[in-house]
Design a protein that fits this description.
The chain is mainly alpha-helical and 342 residues long. The chain folds into two domains: 18-196 and 309-338, Rossmann fold, CATH 3.40.50; 216-304, Tyrosyl-Transfer RNA Synthetase (Orthogonal Bundle), CATH 1.10.240. Helix content is 52%, strand content 6%. It is built from 13 helices and five strands. The strands form two sheets. The protein has a three-stranded parallel β-sheet with strand order 1-2-3. The protein has a two-stranded parallel sheet with strand order 4-5. 41% of the residues are buried. The structure holds adenosine-5'-tetraphosphate. Adenosine-5'-tetraphosphate (AQP) binds next to strand 1 and helix 1. Adenosine-5'-tetraphosphate is lined by residues 22-24, 26, 30, 32-33, 36-37, 159-160, 162-163, 197-199, 208-212.
Length: 342
């Protein structure tokens, strides 16, 4: 008799966990955005159900030029695909195409405390940087981000370490709402890489690398040419020693070592050994060359995708449709719990 090796009928296959993350089209994605977040999104598609968004509604919390915002949004979407997000495997969409995000954000604003939002370091940093435009949207940015995440029953949010505080707030909002209205939202966890979680500015290694930094030498944009990337690394601020070692106080070298390790897979020990007795010039050139080489396929795929705008449009429209179908169910559930007439 043949042995029955199939699972008993009552056992359901385990459901895949859900991932959500986003990136603002506030400029061209930097090496920081890439190593801290986006690079990890593609491989996660195999194991999880993923939704990834170009969060243009977050971008307007800081003044944007409309023409540039439109162009940057399409470029950011193409870059997402060029970084390995497959629109057939994942839901890839533009945030403003899916109206449920703004609707749930309003609800969550009413369940988020003024004190909580006042403690957000991103709000403090950005209001210091844009003192002439400290708008309400900048203040409530984290409730919109909580809506983005909670709409999809998200388990995990892959982000750089700078976003950890916002995810903790999203968890608090979800728990608060669940406590008041019975279980509604899944409480998400951050998913932060061990290496590259905070890539620092090349011109001031005590500051995070940011795509909207006014100094273009402070960041490497994913679309920079090979020459530009190498030049930017040659100019990177280091220290007055000449020793390539990972040590407290050597912020510039630590940052370059983290970048080099992230793109080559070499350990810090191997890097120290490789550059033992060699100057910073050699090391900076090696980092620049390795980064430029690592990003080459992304640049090439981006150029190919930008030549096919019809394909991109079809992808983001399909993505928005799928995202709306899922998120509308969550919004309806929330409205019902609140007592809104449906
Ligand atoms: N320097 C960084 N190192 C590692 N990860 C980073 N991230 C951002 N900067 C670094 C991660 O990238 C993802 C997308 O970020 P975002 O565009 O949504 O917003 P952000 O964190 O404010 O990034 P920028 O580049 O600094 O944008 P601007 O200049 O517009 O404020 C997130 O997962 C973030 O953690």
């Amino acid at each position: 008799m043949q042995e029955n090796i199939s699972a008993p009928k009552s056992e359901k296959p385990e459901k895949k966990k859900i991932i959500f993350s986003g990136i603002q089209p506030t400029g061209v994605m930097t090496l920081g955005n890439y190593l801290g977040a986006v690079r990890n999104w593609g491989p996660l598609q195999e194991e999880y159900n993923c939704a990834y968004s170009i969060v243009n509604m977050h971008a307007i919390t800081v003044r944007q030029n409309p023409k540039e915002l439109r162009e940057n949004t399409i470029k950011a979407y193409a870059l997402l695909l060029a970084c390995g997000i497959d629109p057939k495997k994942s839901i890839a969409f533009i945030q403003s195409h899916v109206k449920t995000h703004a609707e749930l954000a309003w609800v969550l604003n009413c369940y988020t405390q003024f004190g909580e939002l006042s403690r957000m370091t991103q709000f403090k940093d950005k209001s210091a940087k844009h003192a002439d435009n400290i708008n309400a949207g900048l203040f409530t940015y984290p409730s919109l981000m909580a809506a983005d995440i909670l709409l999809y029953n998200t388990d995990l949010v892959p982000v750089g370490i700078d976003q950890k505080q916002h995810i903790e707030l999203a968890r608090n909002i979800a728990e608060r709402f669940n406590g008041l209205y019975s279980n509604t939202f899944k409480v998400p966890e951050p998913y932060i890489p061990k290496l590259g979680a905070k890539i620092m500015s090349l011109s001031d290694p005590t500051k995070k690398m940011s795509k909207s930094d006014e100094n273009p030498n402070s960041f490497v944009a994913i679309l920079d040419s090979e020459d530009t990337i190498i030049k930017k690394f040659k100019r990177a601020v280091t220290d007055s020693e000449a020793e390539v070692v990972y040590r407290e106080g050597k912020d510039g070298i630590n940052n370059l070592m983290s970048i080099y390790s992230s793109v080559t897979g070499k350990s810090f020990e191997e890097i120290e050994h490789e550059f033992d007795g060699r100057g910073y010039g050699d090391f900076k050139l090696a980092v620049g060359t390795a980064v430029a080489e690592h990003l080459r396929p992304v640049r090439e795929e981006f150029a190919r995708l930008m030549d096919d705008k019809a394909y991109l449009e079809q992808c983001y429209k399909d993505g928005a449709e799928k995202a709306l179908a899922i998120s509308q169910r969550m919004l309806d559930k929330v409205y019902k719990k609140l007592g809104f007439v449906l």
